[in-house]
Every structure is written in structure tokens, then in C-alpha cells.
Amino acid sequence: VPVVTEKQPDNEKYEPTTNGITKKYGIPTTEDEVIDIVRIPYFPVDGVQPIVTVNDPRLLPNGQKEGQINVPVTVT
């Protein structure tokens, strides 16, 4: 009886990570800064690469509020 184990989906195999972004007060955070800081460890460098998008760019911190703000992203 042949038994086939399917390939593990990339979204289960590779967990995106980030060290976050620290900005001085008054300096807004850009979409590119958020996208560039997301890493996917051990993802093969050859072939199609994952795409990181900011879910809602309107939620990006404008630098006028102290503290941590989590910016939701999607990796596809």
C-alpha cells in the first residue's frame, strides 16, 4: 500500500521573525521599514521569495505617540 506524506506548507514550516523598529519621537515609520525588518529564517534563497505586506498602512505610527504599536503584516 503506497503511503504519501504531502509537503509541509511553507506557512507552517517557516515562521517570520523581527527584532522590531525603534524610532525617535517625531519620526514616522514607513511601510518599507516595516517590510524590510521582517525575516523568514531558513527560507531557501533560490526560487520565489515570500512577499510581506502591511495589512493597513494607515496604522503605521506617525511618531507622535510614545510606546509600542504593533503593525499587522501578512506574509504570502
From TrEMBL:
Region annotation Disordered: where it falls in the sequence: 1-20
Going by the entry's taxonomy, the superkingdom of the source organism is recorded as: Bacteria
In Swiss-Prot or TrEMBL terms, this protein is called Uncharacterized protein
Organism taxonomic ancestry: Bacteria, Bacillati, Bacillota, Bacilli, Bacillales
